[in-house]
Write a structure and sequence with these properties.
Aspartate Aminotransferase, domain 2, 460 residues, 5-stranded mixed β-sheet, single chain
Length: 460
Amino acid sequence: MKGDLKIFNTIVDKLLIAEKETPVVEYIEAAKLHDRIDLSLSNEAMKEDDFQDLLEDLILTTPRTSSKLFFNQLFGGRKGKAVLGDLLAVMLNNSMYTYKVGGPQVGVEKSIINKLCEMVGYGKEGNGTFPSGGSMSNLMAMIMARDAHDPKIKLEGTSKKLIVYTSKASHYSTPKNAAMMGIGRNNVRFVNTNSEGELLPDHLEELILTDLEMGNTPFYVNLTAGTTVLGAYDSIPPVSTICKRYNLWLHVDGAYGGGVIFSKKYKHLLKGIEEADSFSVNAHKMLGTPLTCSIVLTKHSQQLYDSFSNDAEYLYQTDGDDYNLGKISMQCGRRNDALKFWTLWKSVGTETLEKYVDHQFYLAEVAREYIRNHPDYTLYSFDDSISICFNYKGIDANELCTLMYEESEIMVGFGKFRDDEFIRFVTINSENEKEDILNFFSKLEAFVEQSVQLAPTSLT
Protein backbone atom coordinates (compact mmCIF):
# COMPACT_ATOMS: atom_id res chain seq x y z
CA MET A 1 0.00 0.00 0.00
CA LYS A 2 2.83 2.41 0.82
CA GLY A 3 4.28 1.84 -2.63
CA ASP A 4 0.94 2.57 -4.26
CA LEU A 5 0.60 5.79 -2.26
CA LYS A 6 4.07 6.79 -3.45
CA ILE A 7 2.90 6.30 -7.05
CA PHE A 8 -0.20 8.34 -6.22
CA ASN A 9 1.81 11.24 -4.83
CA THR A 10 4.18 11.21 -7.79
CA ILE A 11 1.36 11.38 -10.33
CA VAL A 12 -0.59 14.00 -8.36
CA ASP A 13 2.50 16.23 -8.17
CA LYS A 14 2.80 16.06 -11.96
CA LEU A 15 -0.93 16.70 -12.39
CA LEU A 16 -0.81 19.86 -10.26
CA ILE A 17 2.08 21.18 -12.35
CA ALA A 18 0.32 20.28 -15.59
CA GLU A 19 -2.87 22.06 -14.52
CA LYS A 20 -0.91 25.30 -14.28
CA GLU A 21 1.32 24.90 -17.31
CA THR A 22 -1.25 23.38 -19.70
CA PRO A 23 -4.75 24.04 -18.27
CA VAL A 24 -6.46 22.28 -21.21
CA VAL A 25 -5.19 18.83 -22.18
CA GLU A 26 -4.36 17.80 -25.71
CA TYR A 27 -7.54 16.75 -27.50
CA ILE A 28 -7.79 13.04 -28.26
CA GLU A 29 -10.38 12.13 -30.86
CA ALA A 30 -12.75 9.54 -29.38
CA ALA A 31 -12.30 7.18 -32.34
CA LYS A 32 -8.53 7.21 -31.78
CA LEU A 33 -8.52 6.90 -27.99
CA HIS A 34 -7.54 3.23 -27.87
CA ASP A 35 -4.76 3.84 -30.38
CA ARG A 36 -3.36 6.61 -28.18
CA ILE A 37 -3.59 4.81 -24.81
CA ASP A 38 -3.46 1.07 -24.22
CA LEU A 39 -6.62 0.52 -22.16
CA SER A 40 -6.93 -3.18 -22.96
CA LEU A 41 -7.00 -5.81 -20.22
CA SER A 42 -4.87 -8.95 -20.33
CA ASN A 43 -4.16 -12.13 -18.37
CA GLU A 44 -0.58 -11.20 -17.51
CA ALA A 45 0.50 -8.67 -14.90
CA MET A 46 2.31 -5.53 -16.04
CA LYS A 47 5.76 -4.60 -14.90
CA GLU A 48 5.48 -2.03 -12.12
CA ASP A 49 7.39 0.69 -14.00
CA ASP A 50 5.33 0.14 -17.16
CA PHE A 51 2.13 0.27 -15.13
CA GLN A 52 3.13 3.55 -13.49
CA ASP A 53 4.04 5.08 -16.86
CA LEU A 54 0.71 4.02 -18.35
CA LEU A 55 -1.27 5.27 -15.36
CA GLU A 56 0.55 8.59 -15.48
CA ASP A 57 -0.22 8.94 -19.19
CA LEU A 58 -3.89 8.17 -18.54
CA ILE A 59 -4.19 10.75 -15.76
CA LEU A 60 -2.32 13.47 -17.61
CA THR A 61 -4.46 13.11 -20.75
CA THR A 62 -7.78 13.34 -18.82
CA PRO A 63 -9.69 16.70 -18.96
CA ARG A 64 -8.58 19.02 -16.16
CA THR A 65 -11.73 20.16 -14.39
CA SER A 66 -9.86 22.10 -11.72
CA SER A 67 -7.80 24.27 -14.04
CA LYS A 68 -8.24 28.00 -14.58
CA LEU A 69 -9.61 27.44 -18.09
CA PHE A 70 -12.33 24.89 -17.32
CA PHE A 71 -15.76 26.51 -17.59
CA ASN A 72 -17.57 23.67 -19.32
CA GLN A 73 -19.77 22.15 -16.61
CA LEU A 74 -21.65 23.14 -13.49
CA PHE A 75 -18.70 22.15 -11.31
CA GLY A 76 -15.02 22.97 -11.20
CA GLY A 77 -12.11 23.79 -8.95
CA ARG A 78 -10.70 21.90 -6.01
CA LYS A 79 -10.89 22.49 -2.25
CA GLY A 80 -8.03 20.76 -0.47
CA LYS A 81 -9.86 19.86 2.74
CA ALA A 82 -12.73 18.34 0.74
CA VAL A 83 -10.31 16.25 -1.31
CA LEU A 84 -8.72 15.11 1.95
CA GLY A 85 -12.09 13.87 3.18
CA ASP A 86 -12.77 12.06 -0.08
CA LEU A 87 -9.40 10.28 0.01
CA LEU A 88 -9.98 9.22 3.61
CA ALA A 89 -13.44 7.91 2.72
CA VAL A 90 -11.83 5.72 0.07
CA MET A 91 -9.28 4.42 2.57
CA LEU A 92 -11.96 3.66 5.17
CA ASN A 93 -14.23 2.02 2.57
CA ASN A 94 -17.33 2.14 4.78
CA SER A 95 -20.81 1.61 3.43
CA MET A 96 -23.44 3.92 4.84
CA TYR A 97 -26.41 1.59 5.27
CA THR A 98 -25.91 0.62 8.94
CA TYR A 99 -24.35 2.13 12.04
CA LYS A 100 -22.55 -1.18 12.63
CA VAL A 101 -20.57 -0.68 9.41
CA GLY A 102 -20.50 3.12 9.23
CA GLY A 103 -19.91 3.98 12.88
CA PRO A 104 -19.03 7.66 13.43
CA GLN A 105 -19.42 8.31 9.70
CA VAL A 106 -23.18 7.93 10.18
CA GLY A 107 -22.97 10.77 12.69
CA VAL A 108 -21.08 12.85 10.10
CA GLU A 109 -23.89 12.40 7.57
CA LYS A 110 -26.63 13.08 10.11
CA SER A 111 -24.87 16.25 11.30
CA ILE A 112 -24.86 17.64 7.76
CA ILE A 113 -28.49 16.70 7.14
CA ASN A 114 -29.64 18.20 10.44
CA LYS A 115 -27.79 21.46 9.85
CA LEU A 116 -29.10 21.80 6.29
CA CYS A 117 -32.66 21.11 7.47
CA GLU A 118 -32.22 23.91 9.99
CA MET A 119 -30.90 26.29 7.32
CA VAL A 120 -33.72 25.48 4.90
CA GLY A 121 -36.38 25.89 7.56
CA TYR A 122 -37.44 22.26 7.94
CA GLY A 123 -36.20 22.11 11.53
CA LYS A 124 -36.15 18.91 13.54
CA GLU A 125 -39.06 17.45 11.56
CA GLY A 126 -36.94 17.34 8.42
CA ASN A 127 -34.59 14.63 7.23
CA GLY A 128 -32.58 13.67 4.17
CA THR A 129 -29.93 11.51 2.61
CA PHE A 130 -27.04 11.51 0.14
CA PRO A 131 -28.14 9.97 -3.20
CA SER A 132 -25.67 9.24 -5.99
CA GLY A 133 -26.41 12.45 -7.93
CA GLY A 134 -28.88 15.23 -8.64
CA SER A 135 -31.00 13.07 -10.93
CA MET A 136 -31.32 10.46 -8.18
CA SER A 137 -32.26 13.19 -5.69
CA ASN A 138 -35.09 14.27 -7.96
CA LEU A 139 -36.18 10.66 -8.43
CA MET A 140 -36.41 10.19 -4.67
CA ALA A 141 -38.49 13.35 -4.38
CA MET A 142 -40.89 12.13 -7.05
CA ILE A 143 -41.25 8.74 -5.35
CA MET A 144 -42.05 10.40 -2.02
CA ALA A 145 -44.60 12.59 -3.77
CA ARG A 146 -46.25 9.57 -5.38
CA ASP A 147 -46.44 7.67 -2.08
CA ALA A 148 -47.70 10.71 -0.19
CA HIS A 149 -50.48 11.05 -2.76
CA ASP A 150 -51.45 7.37 -2.55
CA PRO A 151 -49.62 5.05 -0.09
CA LYS A 152 -51.12 1.97 -1.75
CA ILE A 153 -49.24 2.53 -5.01
CA LYS A 154 -45.94 1.14 -3.71
CA LEU A 155 -47.75 -2.10 -2.85
CA GLU A 156 -50.31 -2.46 -5.60
CA GLY A 157 -48.99 -0.31 -8.43
CA THR A 158 -51.03 2.42 -10.04
CA SER A 159 -53.95 2.45 -12.43
CA LYS A 160 -54.22 6.23 -12.35
CA LYS A 161 -52.81 8.61 -14.91
CA LEU A 162 -50.37 10.47 -12.67
CA ILE A 163 -49.23 13.89 -13.89
CA VAL A 164 -45.94 15.70 -13.26
CA TYR A 165 -45.25 19.41 -13.88
CA THR A 166 -41.92 21.09 -14.55
CA SER A 167 -40.70 24.05 -16.56
CA LYS A 168 -39.47 23.92 -20.14
CA ALA A 169 -36.08 25.10 -18.85
CA SER A 170 -35.72 22.42 -16.17
CA HIS A 171 -33.28 19.52 -15.95
CA TYR A 172 -33.84 16.48 -18.14
CA SER A 173 -34.05 14.18 -15.11
CA THR A 174 -37.76 14.91 -14.57
CA PRO A 175 -39.03 13.18 -17.74
CA LYS A 176 -36.32 10.54 -17.36
CA ASN A 177 -37.47 9.76 -13.82
CA ALA A 178 -41.10 9.72 -14.91
CA ALA A 179 -40.19 7.08 -17.49
CA MET A 180 -38.32 4.96 -14.93
CA MET A 181 -41.19 5.17 -12.43
CA GLY A 182 -43.75 3.99 -14.98
CA ILE A 183 -45.52 7.34 -14.99
CA GLY A 184 -44.49 7.92 -18.58
CA ARG A 185 -42.75 10.77 -20.35
CA ASN A 186 -46.02 11.80 -22.01
CA ASN A 187 -47.50 12.52 -18.58
CA VAL A 188 -44.94 15.24 -17.86
CA ARG A 189 -46.33 18.72 -18.51
CA PHE A 190 -43.78 21.36 -19.47
CA VAL A 191 -44.72 24.77 -18.12
CA ASN A 192 -43.91 27.92 -20.08
CA THR A 193 -41.24 30.31 -18.84
CA ASN A 194 -40.64 34.03 -19.04
CA SER A 195 -37.76 35.61 -20.96
CA GLU A 196 -35.31 34.74 -18.15
CA GLY A 197 -36.27 31.07 -18.04
CA GLU A 198 -38.42 31.25 -14.90
CA LEU A 199 -41.55 29.09 -14.67
CA LEU A 200 -44.86 30.94 -15.14
CA PRO A 201 -47.23 30.10 -12.23
CA ASP A 202 -50.35 31.11 -14.17
CA HIS A 203 -49.58 28.64 -16.93
CA LEU A 204 -48.88 25.94 -14.33
CA GLU A 205 -52.35 26.40 -12.87
CA GLU A 206 -53.93 26.34 -16.33
CA LEU A 207 -52.29 22.97 -17.01
CA ILE A 208 -53.39 21.57 -13.64
CA LEU A 209 -57.00 22.60 -14.23
CA THR A 210 -56.97 21.07 -17.71
CA ASP A 211 -55.70 17.76 -16.32
CA LEU A 212 -58.31 17.73 -13.57
CA GLU A 213 -61.05 18.34 -16.12
CA MET A 214 -59.73 15.38 -18.13
CA GLY A 215 -59.86 13.10 -15.08
CA ASN A 216 -56.08 12.89 -14.70
CA THR A 217 -54.28 12.89 -11.35
CA PRO A 218 -51.78 15.73 -10.76
CA PHE A 219 -49.45 14.95 -7.85
CA TYR A 220 -46.01 16.61 -8.27
CA VAL A 221 -44.54 19.97 -9.24
CA ASN A 222 -40.81 20.47 -9.82
CA LEU A 223 -39.28 23.93 -9.52
CA THR A 224 -35.68 24.73 -10.39
CA ALA A 225 -33.21 26.78 -8.36
CA GLY A 226 -30.64 27.46 -11.06
CA THR A 227 -31.68 26.20 -14.47
CA THR A 228 -28.94 24.39 -16.36
CA VAL A 229 -28.62 26.93 -19.16
CA LEU A 230 -29.52 30.41 -17.91
CA GLY A 231 -29.18 29.72 -14.18
CA ALA A 232 -32.69 31.02 -13.46
CA TYR A 233 -34.50 30.60 -10.13
CA ASP A 234 -38.18 29.74 -10.26
CA SER A 235 -40.33 31.75 -7.83
CA ILE A 236 -41.40 29.50 -4.96
CA PRO A 237 -44.18 31.42 -3.08
CA PRO A 238 -46.81 31.61 -5.87
CA VAL A 239 -46.24 27.99 -6.85
CA SER A 240 -46.41 26.88 -3.22
CA THR A 241 -49.85 28.50 -3.01
CA ILE A 242 -50.99 26.61 -6.11
CA CYS A 243 -49.63 23.30 -4.79
CA LYS A 244 -51.48 23.71 -1.50
CA ARG A 245 -54.67 24.58 -3.35
CA TYR A 246 -54.59 21.33 -5.33
CA ASN A 247 -52.75 19.16 -2.76
CA LEU A 248 -49.60 18.65 -4.87
CA TRP A 249 -46.10 17.84 -3.64
CA LEU A 250 -43.67 20.70 -4.32
CA HIS A 251 -40.03 19.84 -4.96
CA VAL A 252 -37.28 22.40 -5.56
CA ASP A 253 -34.37 21.10 -7.62
CA GLY A 254 -31.43 23.14 -6.32
CA ALA A 255 -28.74 20.81 -7.64
CA TYR A 256 -27.04 23.72 -9.42
CA GLY A 257 -28.05 26.87 -7.56
CA GLY A 258 -29.23 25.57 -4.19
CA GLY A 259 -25.92 26.52 -2.58
CA VAL A 260 -27.27 30.06 -2.14
CA ILE A 261 -28.80 28.86 1.15
CA PHE A 262 -25.33 29.60 2.55
CA SER A 263 -25.40 33.24 1.43
CA LYS A 264 -27.17 36.03 3.27
CA LYS A 265 -26.86 38.17 0.13
CA TYR A 266 -28.35 35.66 -2.31
CA LYS A 267 -30.59 33.46 -0.17
CA HIS A 268 -33.53 35.60 -1.34
CA LEU A 269 -33.37 33.61 -4.58
CA LEU A 270 -34.81 30.72 -2.55
CA LYS A 271 -37.45 32.76 -0.76
CA GLY A 272 -40.18 30.42 0.43
CA ILE A 273 -38.01 27.27 0.36
CA GLU A 274 -39.37 26.27 3.77
CA GLU A 275 -42.76 25.78 2.09
CA ALA A 276 -41.42 23.15 -0.33
CA ASP A 277 -42.00 19.51 0.54
CA SER A 278 -38.50 18.57 -0.62
CA PHE A 279 -35.31 20.25 -1.76
CA SER A 280 -32.13 18.97 -3.37
CA VAL A 281 -28.67 20.50 -3.58
CA ASN A 282 -25.29 19.35 -4.92
CA ALA A 283 -22.35 20.23 -2.72
CA HIS A 284 -20.09 19.34 -5.67
CA LYS A 285 -21.29 22.42 -7.52
CA MET A 286 -21.41 25.81 -5.78
CA LEU A 287 -19.77 24.47 -2.62
CA GLY A 288 -16.65 23.04 -4.27
CA THR A 289 -16.80 19.46 -2.97
CA PRO A 290 -15.53 16.66 -5.26
CA LEU A 291 -18.02 14.68 -7.31
CA THR A 292 -20.43 13.35 -6.33
CA CYS A 293 -21.96 14.96 -3.28
CA SER A 294 -25.72 15.24 -3.73
CA ILE A 295 -28.25 15.78 -0.97
CA VAL A 296 -32.04 15.54 -0.88
CA LEU A 297 -34.00 16.95 2.06
CA THR A 298 -37.66 16.71 2.98
CA LYS A 299 -39.79 18.33 5.65
CA HIS A 300 -41.66 15.01 5.94
CA SER A 301 -39.22 12.70 7.73
CA GLN A 302 -41.76 9.90 8.05
CA GLN A 303 -42.46 9.98 4.31
CA LEU A 304 -38.76 9.46 3.58
CA TYR A 305 -38.83 6.37 5.77
CA ASP A 306 -42.14 5.08 4.42
CA SER A 307 -41.02 5.33 0.80
CA PHE A 308 -37.58 3.76 1.13
CA SER A 309 -37.50 1.46 4.15
CA ASN A 310 -37.54 -2.29 3.69
CA ASP A 311 -36.87 -4.91 6.36
CA ALA A 312 -33.78 -7.09 5.93
CA GLU A 313 -32.85 -9.26 8.91
CA TYR A 314 -29.48 -10.14 7.40
CA LEU A 315 -28.55 -6.44 7.33
CA TYR A 316 -30.26 -4.41 10.07
CA GLN A 317 -29.13 -6.37 13.12
CA THR A 318 -28.11 -3.68 15.60
CA ASP A 319 -28.95 -0.12 16.63
CA GLY A 320 -32.10 1.86 15.84
CA ASP A 321 -33.55 3.00 12.56
CA ASP A 322 -32.34 6.56 13.17
CA TYR A 323 -28.75 5.38 12.69
CA ASN A 324 -29.34 2.68 10.07
CA LEU A 325 -29.33 5.01 7.08
CA GLY A 326 -30.21 2.29 4.58
CA LYS A 327 -33.80 2.64 5.84
CA ILE A 328 -34.08 6.07 4.20
CA SER A 329 -31.90 5.54 1.14
CA MET A 330 -32.57 4.45 -2.42
CA GLN A 331 -29.43 2.32 -2.31
CA CYS A 332 -28.20 -0.47 -0.09
CA GLY A 333 -24.41 -0.35 -0.50
CA ARG A 334 -23.55 3.35 -0.57
CA ARG A 335 -20.18 5.09 -0.47
CA ASN A 336 -19.49 7.76 2.11
CA ASP A 337 -20.11 11.00 0.21
CA ALA A 338 -20.71 12.98 3.40
CA LEU A 339 -17.18 12.96 4.81
CA LYS A 340 -15.64 15.17 2.10
CA PHE A 341 -18.33 17.82 2.61
CA TRP A 342 -17.95 17.58 6.37
CA THR A 343 -14.15 17.95 6.29
CA LEU A 344 -14.54 21.06 4.15
CA TRP A 345 -17.38 22.59 6.17
CA LYS A 346 -15.85 21.72 9.56
CA SER A 347 -12.43 23.11 8.61
CA VAL A 348 -13.46 26.41 7.01
CA GLY A 349 -16.80 27.12 8.70
CA THR A 350 -20.15 28.30 7.36
CA GLU A 351 -18.92 31.85 6.86
CA THR A 352 -16.25 30.71 4.40
CA LEU A 353 -18.74 28.60 2.45
CA GLU A 354 -20.79 31.78 2.19
CA LYS A 355 -17.75 33.57 0.75
CA TYR A 356 -17.34 30.81 -1.85
CA VAL A 357 -20.90 31.36 -3.05
CA ASP A 358 -20.74 35.16 -3.02
CA HIS A 359 -17.43 35.10 -4.90
CA GLN A 360 -18.99 33.13 -7.75
CA PHE A 361 -21.64 35.81 -8.20
CA TYR A 362 -18.91 38.47 -8.09
CA LEU A 363 -17.00 36.68 -10.85
CA ALA A 364 -20.20 36.45 -12.89
CA GLU A 365 -20.68 40.20 -12.58
CA VAL A 366 -17.08 40.75 -13.72
CA ALA A 367 -17.90 38.70 -16.83
CA ARG A 368 -21.20 40.49 -17.52
CA GLU A 369 -19.56 43.90 -17.10
CA TYR A 370 -16.84 42.96 -19.57
CA ILE A 371 -19.40 41.80 -22.12
CA ARG A 372 -21.56 44.90 -21.72
CA ASN A 373 -18.55 47.13 -22.27
CA HIS A 374 -17.43 45.43 -25.49
CA PRO A 375 -19.67 45.88 -28.55
CA ASP A 376 -18.49 42.66 -30.24
CA TYR A 377 -20.40 40.66 -27.61
CA THR A 378 -24.11 39.93 -27.26
CA LEU A 379 -25.34 39.13 -23.73
CA TYR A 380 -28.33 36.80 -23.23
CA SER A 381 -28.26 36.29 -19.47
CA PHE A 382 -29.07 38.49 -16.48
CA ASP A 383 -28.04 39.45 -12.95
CA ASP A 384 -28.30 37.00 -10.03
CA SER A 385 -26.97 34.11 -12.09
CA ILE A 386 -23.53 32.53 -12.39
CA SER A 387 -24.29 31.32 -15.93
CA ILE A 388 -23.12 33.97 -18.38
CA CYS A 389 -24.58 33.36 -21.82
CA PHE A 390 -23.18 35.34 -24.75
CA ASN A 391 -22.04 35.32 -28.34
CA TYR A 392 -18.93 36.93 -29.83
CA LYS A 393 -18.98 38.65 -33.22
CA GLY A 394 -22.01 36.60 -34.24
CA ILE A 395 -19.90 33.45 -34.50
CA ASP A 396 -21.75 30.14 -34.21
CA ALA A 397 -21.39 29.12 -30.55
CA ASN A 398 -21.39 25.40 -31.25
CA GLU A 399 -18.58 25.67 -33.79
CA LEU A 400 -16.50 28.03 -31.69
CA CYS A 401 -16.74 26.01 -28.46
CA THR A 402 -16.00 22.76 -30.28
CA LEU A 403 -13.01 24.22 -32.10
CA MET A 404 -11.53 25.67 -28.89
CA TYR A 405 -11.92 22.24 -27.29
CA GLU A 406 -10.31 20.40 -30.19
CA GLU A 407 -7.45 22.91 -30.31
CA SER A 408 -6.95 22.54 -26.51
CA GLU A 409 -7.47 26.25 -25.85
CA ILE A 410 -10.50 26.59 -23.54
CA MET A 411 -13.06 24.18 -22.11
CA VAL A 412 -16.42 25.94 -22.31
CA GLY A 413 -19.84 24.76 -23.45
CA PHE A 414 -22.75 26.17 -25.40
CA GLY A 415 -26.46 26.23 -24.69
CA LYS A 416 -29.78 27.18 -26.19
CA PHE A 417 -32.82 29.04 -24.92
CA ARG A 418 -35.79 29.44 -27.21
CA ASP A 419 -34.34 30.44 -30.59
CA ASP A 420 -30.97 31.67 -29.33
CA GLU A 421 -27.82 29.56 -29.15
CA PHE A 422 -24.82 30.93 -27.25
CA ILE A 423 -21.70 30.20 -25.26
CA ARG A 424 -22.53 29.27 -21.65
CA PHE A 425 -19.70 30.43 -19.42
CA VAL A 426 -20.06 29.32 -15.77
CA THR A 427 -18.21 31.00 -12.88
CA ILE A 428 -18.74 28.13 -10.43
CA ASN A 429 -15.04 27.70 -9.61
CA SER A 430 -14.54 29.92 -6.56
CA GLU A 431 -10.77 29.38 -6.83
CA ASN A 432 -10.78 31.77 -9.80
CA GLU A 433 -10.14 35.49 -9.49
CA LYS A 434 -11.03 38.52 -11.60
CA GLU A 435 -7.89 38.14 -13.71
CA ASP A 436 -8.85 34.56 -14.58
CA ILE A 437 -12.20 35.74 -15.93
CA LEU A 438 -10.58 38.49 -17.99
CA ASN A 439 -7.97 35.99 -19.21
CA PHE A 440 -10.78 33.80 -20.53
CA PHE A 441 -12.07 36.62 -22.74
CA SER A 442 -8.56 37.55 -23.82
CA LYS A 443 -7.81 33.98 -24.91
CA LEU A 444 -11.18 33.65 -26.66
CA GLU A 445 -10.63 36.83 -28.66
CA ALA A 446 -7.06 35.86 -29.58
CA PHE A 447 -8.22 32.41 -30.65
CA VAL A 448 -10.95 33.84 -32.88
CA GLU A 449 -8.51 36.24 -34.51
CA GLN A 450 -6.03 33.45 -35.26
CA SER A 451 -8.67 30.94 -36.29
CA VAL A 452 -10.40 33.28 -38.69
CA GLN A 453 -7.06 33.66 -40.46
CA LEU A 454 -6.45 29.90 -40.42
CA ALA A 455 -9.97 28.66 -41.20
CA PRO A 456 -12.28 31.54 -42.08
CA THR A 457 -15.12 29.34 -43.34
CA SER A 458 -15.57 27.59 -39.99
CA LEU A 459 -16.06 30.79 -38.02
CA THR A 460 -18.21 32.89 -40.31
